[in-house]
Amino acid sequence: MKILISRKISYSQLALLFIWVFLIGACAPSRMVKPLAKGEQALGGNFGGPLILFAGAPIPVPYTSGFYAKGFTNKTTGFASVHLTALAFGVFQTDIGVCHELYSNEKLQWGVSVNPAVNIAIDRWEWNTKIWPQLDVNVYKNWGNKRMVYMGVNNWFEPSASRAHNEKQEKFVYVNPHIGFMYTPKKWTYGIESKWVAPGLSNIPNVADYLGINKKGAIGIYVQLIRRF
User: 99 and 113 in contact (C-beta within 8 Å)?
Assistant: First the structure.
């Protein structure tokens, strides 16, 4: 996820920390891995982000967002979100999209889904607006009715030739691989996802020690809770 920040902000170390998180790519897990049933609805939220070293221990940046989803058909579910941490920094951000099942094998209990979405961010200082397309692709495997593992990639597209404050845009596509697990007893879903955020972007020098691979990007940990009704 990326974000618009005005020059009017007084940049503290904490603000710089969050700004860099917003700049490096996707900052939420896959909204929906499998579509809901037709007419079924869900409310969900997630907590977590890229790992940093804090007092010598690895912790995820506490990024939060919430979303609503509804099954249009048994194969297609629509969703929309509000990014709560971005809102606390004065930026309204949402991702709006669908989860569509491309293929499923009921006998082997696995399938493939895609989440095309559009991200919109509007800052409260100058009312700048930015839009970023996004496409998640997931392959999932069920074990019974309660457990599911999945893996895939989050593709984030930057259509602008410049970043905030007219900085040159060096990268136009961010490919973020991820793997996750979901446990679904009855109407609740508990999920955890790990994502390599912005693997092609150097994470040094920076205001925090981000835990990436070969000093690239950051490994993210996200916890998700969903209630279906």
Answer: yes
Domain map (residue ranges) of the chain = 13-228
Secondary structure of 21-48 as H, E, C letters: HHHCCCCCCCCCCCCCCCCCEEEEEEEE
Taking only the tens place, the pLDDT of each residue in 62-87 is: 889 999 999 999 999 999 999 998 88
| Helix/strand/coil for 18 | helix
DSSP E strands: which ranges in 126-183?
129-143, 147-157, 173-183
**3-class DSSP state of 13:** helix
* Secondary element (H or E) of residue 195: strand 188-202
Is the domain defined by 13-228 classed in CATH 2.40.128?
A: yes
pTM over 0.90: no
